[in-house]
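Good day; I would like, with your permission, to put a structural problem before you. I would ask you to consider whether the tokens describe a fold that such a sequence might reasonably adopt. The full record is reproduced below for your convenience:
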Amino acid sequence: MEMEKEIYASFRDARIVEILKVEVNEGNGTEEDPIRRVAYYLNKSGKVLFHTTDKEREFAGGDEMLKVDEA
């Protein structure tokens, strides 16, 4: 029986890049469209790379909803 060869990803580049994180409140504040915190991540030129939202807005005194790990 022949052993299966392990296959690895073909990475072409890896680097540390700086991005801007902008948090905004979105939604109308209604039951159908509650206010939620959304974080947009932009490059230095201002182009939106991606955004996240996963729960309703936390009000003053709460922890920041979306945290980025700081190494």
User: Anything to note?
Assistant: The chain has a mean pLDDT of 77. The two ends are 45 Å apart (CA to CA). The first strand starts at residue 20 and ends at 26. The CA atoms of residues 21 and 41 lie 5 Å apart.
